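Appendix B, example 12.
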Amino acid sequence: MKNYEFWFVVGSQTLYGEEVLRTVAARAEEMAQKLSAVLPYPLKYKVTAKSNAEILDVVKEANYNDACAGIVTWCHTFSPSKMWINGLELLQKPWCHFATQYNREIPNEEIDMDFMNLNQAAHGDREHGFIGARLRAPRKIIAGYWQDGDVQERLASWMKVAVGVAFSRSLKVMRFGDNMREVAVTEGDKVEVQRKLGWQVNTWAVGDLVKEMNAVTEAEVDALMDVYREKYDFATDNVEAIRYQAREEIAMKKMMDREGCKAFANTFQDLYGMEQLPGLASQHLMAQGYGYGGEGDWKVSAMTAILKAMGEGGNGASGFMEDYTYHLVKGQEYSLGAHMLEVCPSLASARPRIETHPLGIGMNEKDPARLVFEGKAGKAIVVSLIDMGGRLRLIVQDIEAVKPIMPMPNLPVARVMWKAMPNLTTGVECWITAGGAHHTVLSYDVTAEQMRDWARIMDIEYVHIGADTTVESLEHDLFLSDLAWKLK
């Protein structure tokens, strides 16, 4: 991940005199330094903005500074909002309006008109809020005292969203071949996606990958095998199958790194010249932060990479997922998520093991090696991005992953079991009503609120299925949303 930073722009005006402005600047610098010590990315005090020109200058600088992932604004005093119009109209980076104040309490004995002239955030931020609303600008509003832990956590969470935005806008996706034949949901308008989300999605022939594989040396394979032994348990004697996966991984990584790609997709229908569908290879690449999509699903591939970038430490517990089958026993309704081979080991509850088994589908000449494990328990989300024709829709569902209720000893794939919100059957009906894909990104680190913020910044539709969602309420919301987006 890049060394991102966020810029702290504090609003005021010349009306209050130089002494007040010096105090505002000193306090802003202090706040930025103290917040930087607890936030995931530095908050850099840039300017006490007092004029249209100063705001316009800092916005232009932020737009063209790759290190700046977003701006955080706060009005220490009253800051007339007309002077913000030109700058905010040009702003291309995520914006957080931090409605706070320097002092926690009203100082009963000390409060006088000098104090009131200096500490005007209560109405300064309302003036600032008006212009954001008037401009219909996408912004995150966080209110609360700046030294409170819960407020700092919300600001930290938004910072990760902004990093996800920066990551998305420079993301390149490498498609090895086309997507699975006749599948609808994996299609999409790549031009519109690049315009809205920044993704550059292009195709490389499987023959290009085979050529790269043939150039991989035995020494390179030996080195990656040592990494596999360090991270995973070998539960197969078929070492050649594992070495073949290592060769695939090395070749795919070289091609992606050479082209600057952080996500990739392939399909079991297009393996000409290859012995195995990349299983272990894809899984270990995901563990390193690359996004993946099966059956050529480039949208879920890109979303996997973005959620990883937004996760803990810049590569969180997020991975490509698919709803495979349901457990429909009354009172014990669960969804079993898996895929043929490619589930990220960041989701694992324990050390994964490498196994080889027949795949039974596709063009595999030999049994592919793959990681097998159970997913960890905990609250999570599943995310699907679909092309509705004319707009993109991001669907997010809350889930609670559980330890699988049965061992499934003959299922030779990684798997995660979860309870869907609000319950399995209602959740399924809502998901299908919204048009959610069978491929998703499952994340333990990224929240529904973060995905809502990301969708708002990207100016795409957002649909949330949670504990209180009903089919009727969702249908009503989708109807109104459809009207609004068509008018927009």
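The longest strand covers residues 318-329. The chain has 15 helices and 19 strands.
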